[in-house]
Amino acid sequence: MCSVSIDVKDVEDLAQTFPDLEQRLQPVPPCVSLRESVQVYKEHCRMAREFHQVKHEITALEDRKRKLLAELVEDEKVAMEIARLEEEFRRLTEENRNLVTVHNERAQQLERLCLTNRTRQDSS
């Protein structure tokens, strides 16, 4: 074991916990009488803080990904509905065009029949 050459307050300041890390990966408090031990501990703490930050960023990016995928699914549904409506519009436009044509033909037939009928009535 190493000998302690600094007071308890300094050790408490160094003692950091990182709840995101497994217990076996937690930084082990240094042997404060060895400069290298303190440096390794500080480096370990720095890496643990970076790990926490990266883990937080990953979580945020995964949340964003889930939201974007949900939006993509919704956009695909909207695109399918638009395609369906465009097809229905095309079909109804064609049907309307046919009905207008038939209406015009029948109107002309009616007009001819009316003329024929008047001609017959005038002849009688």
From TrEMBL:
<dbReference type="GO" id="GO:0005829">
    <property type="term" value="C:cytosol"/>
</dbReference>
<protein>
    <submittedName>
        <fullName>Map3k7 C-terminal like</fullName>
    </submittedName>
</protein>
<keyword id="KW-0175">Coiled coil</keyword>
<dbReference type="GO" id="GO:0005634">
    <property type="term" value="C:nucleus"/>
</dbReference>
<dbReference type="InterPro" id="IPR042800">
    <property type="entry name" value="Map3k7cl"/>
</dbReference>
<feature type="coiled-coil region">
    <location>
        <begin position="51"/>
        <end position="102"/>
    </location>
</feature>
